[in-house]
Amino acid sequence: MSSFYFASCGFFLLLMMLILAMDCSHASSARHVLDSREEVRLPAPKGNLTISVKESFLNKAMLLLLPWLNVFLRGLKLPPHEQGNLYIDEVNFTEIGVGSVFVAMESPNRLNVSLYDLKVAIPETLFSVWVGLFWCNGILRFSVKILSIKVSLMVLLQPNGKVGLKNLGVDILWLKLFVEHSFTGGFCSEMEKVIEALFGDLDKIIEMMAMKKVPEMIGSMLEEKSDAFFNSLPFHVVDGPNVSEKRLEIAMNSDSRSEKSEEVSSLLLPVISSPWMPSNLDSPPWRRNLEIFFTETAFNEILLYLNRSFHLNQTVAFPSKYNSSLIKEMFPELYKLCPNCSFAALFSPTVPPRAIFRPYRTVIFDILNGFVGLRMVSAAGQQVPVLETLVNYTGGFSDLRVTLLHSIYFRLTEANVTLKVLKTSVGPIDEKALNEKVRFLLKWVFLPMFNVNFKGIPLPPQIAFPFLDVSPQGIVAAFDLSIL
């Protein structure tokens, strides 16, 4: 149950991170040459979070996500089922390999998802049959080949204002469904012919039951898991969902509208846009296959959601060559606590971070009491704290954009940071001196060096025609997928 939820949640969250990273600006003259589509302005947003997805985007994305989908489906389970005198235990799938996926949109508000060329492996499954006075227990063995599964879904609005999916039908085209049973008890094995005389061919009965019940179970599971996922999101629908023949559009607001972010504590340097970089204003905002708009309020709700689900907690293991032997000469007593141990850095916000959208394509993050720690980890898993701190940090990114070289470019703003030492194994630490040195290094060494040397992060080749506009009113992100 949880695998579907977390996989869906995970897919959504990964997609959002990709969109946030995408800042763009391409010269309009280049756009006219590269893409001959009619220029149609992006629609005005109707909510704090507005999403528009084209059918072709989903189908291209499915090609990229097939390996991940196959890993996720490997843990699929069907719940126990009882019909008449027959009881079948939970059915586990050790393998469900999908060859291809196709998504079709129909008006009004209908999604058809088809899975083709499925490879299915099911381990032995327990079953029981009531023979009048007692239960006979046994084992089922399945041999299954499926050509396709087609799921028809209605995208609708739940009574609580959340998005929902209603199963309209699941069609399975079986190439092969063979069931073989054996009883585990000696008495029941000897009574096999009597049981078949009473109930008929158990194998055929179970095969027919599976053909009828499995589609119903899949449809019910899809409804249950999708509703649970959408209900967990901190947004409710204000317009839509609207599904046409080629595009799905939905506008949402935050469940609990947070107040406008307070002014950040640090005094930031004026943001100067680089004149040699192309501007977003030069890019014609035609319709893309995926379009997302979110306000500062919606973005902070997403941060709150990620924090509550512990997705912002990170542990980063250092490469093995950076082990405690490097500090043996400088900190011999510390080394003795964990000889030749690896290092790991821990990051955990104790308070949800907040973002502030500013002019000049700037996003500032205000982090209060963020936990940052460095630990030594032995081969047995024992952890020895080296330094653990609470950090107040204000800083972010300015001039967010995508260059003509198709790379993500940004500048780091001046940062204001304060550290409080919680635990240390390196001896007494002067917090005042530590803070002064950290601020000095950030202001005069690390940030200037980064901004001078950073040339951008190349976008993957599958991302085509990205567009993103960052302003105090919100972020508009859009792009196409290109499968090479």
Automatic annotation (TrEMBL):
PANTHER family: BACTERICIDAL PERMEABILITY-INCREASING BPI PROTEIN-RELATED, BPI2 DOMAIN-CONTAINING PROTEIN. Keywords: Signal. Residues 1-27 form the signal peptide. Coiled coil: none annotated. This is Expression site-associated gene (ESAG-like) protein, putative. The lineage of its organism: Eukaryota, Discoba, Euglenozoa, Kinetoplastea, Metakinetoplastina. It comes from Trypanosoma cruzi (strain CL Brener). InterPro entries: Bactericidal_perm-incr_a/b_dom, BPI/LBP/Plunc. One of its GO terms (molecular function) is lipid binding.
